[in-house]
Write a structure and sequence with these properties.
five-stranded mixed beta sheet; alpha+beta; elongated; Nucleotidyltransferase, domain 5; single chain; 613 residues; GIY-YIG endonuclease; seven-stranded mixed beta sheet
């Protein structure tokens, strides 16, 4: 690993949680090269980089450029998730799984006239019932042996005119010499399914009674065998959050929002297992609930995803609206049980991804050492210390704002950040917006005889750069270098424009200079989005409240100070609104009006999405 890459890994290691889960090691191209599980992610993943290794492990560590992880609730869950991830990604460095075929075993009830229960290694579309996979092969085998004794099906090779040995032992229903009614098999299969789905209380009670009787007779070896069998049953059929209780294909969406950024996790449950996880992280302006409805709609349209049979979302999202935009797929919010646990797990992972992003930025001070010089050298300008960067934000022309962040010696100085409400009429006129904020910023610095920056960066391209130069040179007589920060289609920093043409500078994407540029662009965009969200929310709340009969400026301000959002006002009891000195008639009017506005907004958003697609 390069010095820069090792620093990046070092910072991510510091953020690992003390929780069970799976980790995915990636190479420099982002390809998954190893999947592992851990009771404690922090201890296990750190061991790769903090200990000496030989052979294959040493080679693996030498190729790791990044990693990600998924937290779960127990070590058993991480074991089963690891199996799924290995089977899906087939990482180069993973040791072949047990049973020699790339998978752990399943317990199968065969689909035939005289069914059997057996251990198999592969899933086939043959109409059979499959349970598993089971990480503990021996425990699975012992469980099948127990089921064959308690709920026998067919254990022989079929009809042979005489009873088999298993029939005499009570472990075969007698297909070897007679016709066994299908209803008899159906009853047994129903009991076996119930057992393997976790309903083992009766069986454990029976075994415990046998164990106690054996111990009372001083048959300690027999008692120990029964004790071990109880343990194997617990290992095999214990319910797992990673494994659902049915085969319904379902997608789970959850999210976490902070500081103007939205983190989304999507879990894909297929064949009773968590088959895939996707994550998204981006800044937003609208309410997170509206962003999520839009995201889910576009998720299935743009990616051409096969629709599941069920979608699970948190209670904050409108299930009826989402169901409409995804072609009437049932959308539900689970209240308890396994599905609720999976939904919460997705939310926890979304929160950890976003918190990791913020904490990485805080930990990355050492990474910017010399980064400023790399940028100035690449641009061919004199070395400097101070960068000021600008970005604009608006929603369809409303509440146009601009924001400025300041980096000194590669570090953000938040005391010097500035916000601007722009007066430019045409929001589409990027040049006019840019000229206004540059004119206001540097006219003020000139009047105050304040220190000028060594470099100005605009979130944008040639249009914004030329607008800045026009104001600086032709209006203010300032000669400050100006660059443009350009993003790619994935909204990630791609290029730095500088000079009189639109040819980007060739910055090494692994260099400290490029990383500093990325940090600046992310920070100014976040700051602009966050400020715009506050302005837009305040204006939107005020205008909607002003439209309600009986609500004047004083009443509006009381409501905003107390509740802060339309949603909270709408959900508040009339008694709480009246406590602000508002009459019951006006309070009732407010409640009715806001519920009507909220319903109209849902319908409008849904119609907009249908027109868009």
């Amino acid at each position: 690993m390069s010095f820069l890459a090792s620093e990046y890994i070092e910072h991510k290691l510091a953020l690992l949680p003390d929780m069970p889960g799976c980790y995915l090691m990636k190479d420099i191209n982002g390809k998954i090269i190893y999947v592992g599980k851990a009771k404690n992610l922090k201890n296990r993943v750190r061991s790769y980089f903090k200990s000496s290794h030989e052979g294959k492990t040493a080679r693996l560590v030498s190729e790791i450029a990044d990693f990600e992880y998924i937290v779960v609730s127990s070590d058993k869950e991480s074991f089963l998730l690891e199996i799924t991830l290995i089977q899906k990604h087939r990482p180069y460095f993973n040791i072949k799984l047990k049973q020699g075929n790339g998978g752990y075993p399943y317990i199968k009830i065969t689909n035939e006239r005289d069914p059997q229960i057996k251990i198999v290694n592969t899933l086939l579309k043959d109409g059979g019932f499959y349970f598993g996979p089971y990480p503990n092969v021996y425990a699975a085998e012992e469980t099948v042996n127990f089921l064959q004794k308690v709920y026998p099906l067919r254990r022989c090779n079929g009809f042979q005119n005489r009873p088999c040995l298993y029939y005499h032992m009570g472990q075969c229903l007698g297909a070897c010499f007679k016709v066994v009614p299908e209803e008899t098999y159906a009853r047994q299969i129903k009991r076996i399914k119930s057992f393997l789905n976790g309903n083992v209380a009766h069986a454990k009670q029976m075994l415990t009674s046998r164990m106690e009787k054996a111990a009372a007779k001083m048959e300690y070896e027999r008692a120990a065998e029964i004790r071990d069998l109880i343990k194997y049953i617990e290992i095999t059929v214990e319910k797992q959050k990673i494994i659902s209780n049915d085969n319904t294909p379902r997608d789970i969406f959850n999210y976490y929002m902070d500081k103007g950024w939205l983190s989304i996790q999507v879990f894909f449950i297929r064949q009773s297992r968590l088959m895939k996880r996707e994550k998204r992280l981006f800044p937003i302006i609208d309410d997170p609930e509206e962003e999520m409805v839009s995201f889910i709609s576009q998720f299935y349209k743009q990616k051409n995803q096969i629709l599941p049979k069920e979608i699970l979302v948190p209670s904050s999202l409108p299930t009826d609206v989402i169901s409409h935009v995804v072609e009437d797929v049932p959308v539900r919010t689970p209240q308890r049980g396994q599905k609720r646990d999976l939904l919460e797990m997705a939310g926890k992972n979304a929160q950890m991804v976003l918190e990791e992003k913020f904490r990485l930025l805080e930990l990355d001070e050492s990474k910017t050492t010399g980064a400023m010089k790399e940028l100035t050298d690449a641009m061919g300008i004199a070395p400097g210390h101070k960068i000021e960067a600008f970005d604009h934000s608006h929603i369809q022309g409303a509440d146009l704002v601009s924001a400025m962040v300041v980096f000194v010696d590669g570090q953000p100085n938040k005391n010097l950040y500035r916000k601007y409400k722009l007066k430019t009429v045409d929001h589409a006129d990027e040049a006019a917006s840019t000229k206004e904020v540059i004119r206001r910023r540097y006219t003020r610095l000139l009047k105050e005889h304040a220190e000028m920056p060594d470099l100005i960066l605009m979130d944008g391209g040639v249009i914004q750069m030329n607008a800045v130069k026009d104001v600086l040179l032709n209006e203010l007589g300032l000669n400050i270098p100006v660059g443009g920060m350009v993003k790619n289609i994935h909204h990630q920093t791609a290029d730095l424009l500088f000079g009189d043409n639109d040819t980007p500078l060739q910055l090494n994407p692994k260099s400290q200079g490029f990383y500093l540029l990325q940090r600046i662009q992310d920070e100014v965009h976040r700051f602009a989005i966050s400020y715009h969200h506050k302005v837009h929310t305040k204006n939107s709340l005020s205008s909607r409240l002003d439209a309600i009969s009986g609500v004047g400026p004083k009443t509006r301000n009381k409501l905003l100070r107390k509740f802060g959002s339309l949603r909270k006002i709408s959900n508040a009891p009339v008694e709480d609104i009246r406590k602000l000195g508002i009459s019951e008639t006006v309070a009732q009017t407010i409640k009715f009006s806001l519920s009507k506005i909220d319903e109209e907004r849902k319908v409008t958003n849904y119609q907009d999405k249908k027109l868009t697609h």
